[in-house]
Amino acid sequence: MEIKIKQVILRHLQMELKSPFATSFGTFRNKEFILVEAIDEDGVSGWGESVAFSFPWYNEETVKTNWHMLEDFLLPLLFQAPVAHPQELQQRFSAIRKNQMAKAAIEGAVWDLFAKKRQLPLHKVLGGMKSSIEVGVSIGIQKNVDELLRVIDRYVQDGYRRIKIKIKPGWDVDVVREVRRRFPDIPLMADANSAYSLQDIDRLKALDEFQLMMIEQPLAADDLVDHATLQRQICTPICLDESIHSVEDVRKAIQLGSCQIVNIKIGRVGGLTEAKRIHDLCQENGIPVWCGGMLEAGVGRAHNIAMTTLENFTMPGDTAASSHYWEKDIIVPEVVVHDGTIAVPEAPGIGYEVDRRQVDSYMVFAKTYRAQ
Ligand SMILES: O=C(O)CCC(=O)C1=CC=C[C@@H](O)[C@@H]1C(=O)O
Ligand SMILES: [Mg+2]
Fold this sequence. Notes:
By secondary structure, the protein is an alpha/beta fold. 35% of the residues lie in helices and 22% in strands. It is built from 14 helices and 15 strands. The site of ligand 164 has 12 residues, from loops.
């Protein structure tokens, strides 16, 4: 049953986070992103969401570069021929270097369409077996420690299975010590977003006393070698995020000993096909994985939930409830978390309906592209 995509609608959406999100890179509240709707010859819609921000602080991609890649390169390649299976898009897009988030946005829409055409939930088509997933929450840098402790307490009361806090030089050892004093037993991790270098090794070693689950991406965003040097000198497991763009990067990280855990983000690695490859290689090498977040709206959140049902997603990820981020999400029902878990939808495809009225209320611009 080939998929013949007749048109793709790109929508530039702008949504306001309920509270500002601060990392070692900076703080923002306004989230702009591209929502992708791929419509086949039967009028069935598949949905994908680009996770590129409007400013290239996380990686080199932006909303504008994604739009350019989709309009001028990826959609023309997509329209060239029917799609027998979404996995073939990696090869079809291989002439386009990198631009992983742009590729993941359209590939995700085709995966949703592929599952819907078979009347199957996306997680089943991916090979996921779980009917519910355990989730954590990622908390941005707060204005002071008391505020951080208050925010953590709220999410611990909500039952989230893991708390992720941000650290950077000047907001690290003393802060983690206070958190551990207040919450001695919670599953706790820290994301540094590349705020450190090997010159900071003593500061990073000092974190060993706090039994963190992991320290995420302490060093440079494109590094594997220095992370291997660091991992040999600290006890806390290193988790890589920004350094991993492909299964090849994971192969090298395993060979070098750069990390013990991998944060998989569908957008960062170019789509669900590559994410599955990374999951499988990590599983073969005893490396647990978890699903990272990019402050997604409901479509991206739905894709993350489906991916997290794969067996080696054994650590709670960043997929918090819609209400953690938005006054009103763009999907119905919204993603809800009960006692730190999300019930995986059984409806076809991503398993949630896109609320078109809500999408229109957040829409800045839209353009329809048609197969010739
Ligand atoms: O989506 C979420 O709730 C997690 C957000 C989050 O922690 C991040 C999003 C984007 C970049 C970073 O700041 C950070 C991460 O690196 O995981
Ligand atoms: Mg991270």
